[in-house]
Amino acid sequence: MSTAAVEVSDLVKSYGDTTAVAGLSFTAPRGAVTALLGPNGAGKTSTIEICEGFRSADSGRVRVLGLDPVADAAALKPKVGVMLQSGGVPTGARAGEWLRLVASFHARPVPPDTLLERLGLLSVATTPFRRLSGGQQQRLSLAAAVIGRPELVFLDEPTAGLDPQARMATWDLIGELRAAGVGVVLTTHYMDEAERLADRVVIIDHGRVVADGTTDDLTDTRQELRFAAKGGLDTDSLLAALPPASRIEVRSDETSSDRSGRGHEDDAVRYVITTAAADDIGPEFVATVTTWCAANGVLPQDLRVQRRTLEDVFLHLTGRDLRET
Ligand SMILES: Nc1ncnc2c1ncn2[C@@H]1O[C@H](COP(=O)(O)OP(=O)(O)OP(=O)(O)O)[C@@H](O)[C@H]1O
Predict the structure, then answer these.
(1) How many A from CA of 234 to the centre of ligand 1?
(2) 11 CA to middle of ligand 1, Å?
(3) What is the pTM of this model?
């Protein structure tokens, strides 16, 4: 028996002139959460739908629980749960009835009402799918994906557009699946979601894997110093004061990755300083920055030294923000 839940090698998929997946390889272990992280259009949905057996590949090899997703579809069906981005539920089906129907296809389903309650859907159990809000539709699709107690679930953008409470409920459910030994392969373009949930992150850009590893592997132990200040600082002068091999990035908008939730002055920008050496950002380094700021009449707001985030890794590898498309 193959130890991996999913093995993809040299996968290629084009639509006419568009190459959506351009020689992509990764492995997702069993009993762990693997996140395919990348911006819109990176090829995540194409990849996951090929793994689900819903799309054919142009070339490459895909194994799911050691089986071929198309040729062995019948054997995989009871073992694999699928949540499609498009929902995949008939529009007229009532939420509770649909879930009971899906449950009836499985030998040992989770009781439908338990899932409806867990996902905040009990009050809309008799509502037709098309009348549910987008978030409710998504949660119903998630419930249908996990109701058969699968060994592996594929979740395509499970929390896109959800309100914070529904997002938390979804995250909790994914955490419980993992604790129960279920393998989870999900796509997301939220780096905080990947950081929070995933044992393993596969960063995809333009149909290729640009980085792959545990969150710790990817963010390593390297630290960075960040602060907010007015735009237009003389960064060359600041760089000259810092040890060689330091770098300064200037970012104008960090609202989604700034977890403080607080805004800065309208004209403030974020300065992110990194150095090549892993342990170079110590007390002296910080003092050099603040001394330079004092000498130049700059108040560095929200100054902090922290580990790199996945967002930083993506930016570093691709030169682009995860939110840019
Ligand atoms: N059925 C299709 N026909 C033509 N082009 C397609 C089709 N499906 C996807 N594409 C294109 O392939 C590329 C990759 O799309 P894909 O949906 O796989 O990426 P993604 O990373 O999942 O993006 P998103 O987060 O927006 O779903 C995009 O340029 C997309 O426009």
Answers:
(1) 41
(2) 15
(3) 0.81
- Report CA(34)–ligand 1 centroid distance (Å): 20
118-159: pLDDT as tens digits: 888 999 999 999 999 888 898 999 999 999 999 999 999 999
Q: What is the mean pLDDT of the chain?
A: 88
Closest CA to 156 of 290, 316, 5, 47: 47
* CB 103 within 8 Å of CB 112: yes
Is the beta carbon of 42 within 6 A of some atom in ligand 1? yes
- Domains of the chain, CATH where assigned: 4-218 (3.40.50.300), 221-307 (3.30.70)
Whole-number Å distance between alpha carbons of 104 and 69 = 23
Which residue's CA is the closest to the ligand 1 atom numbered 28? 41
Q: What is the pLDDT of residues 199-258, one digit of tens each?
A: 999 999 999 999 999 988 888 767 889 999 988 899 999 999 998 888 898 887 544 334
271-288: per-residue pLDDT in tens? Answer: 988 887 656 788 999 999
The protein residue whose alpha carbon is closest to atom 11 in ligand 1 is 20
HSE-CB of 76 using CA atoms within 13 angstroms: 23
Q: Is 45 in the pocket of ligand 1 (CB under 6 A)?
A: yes
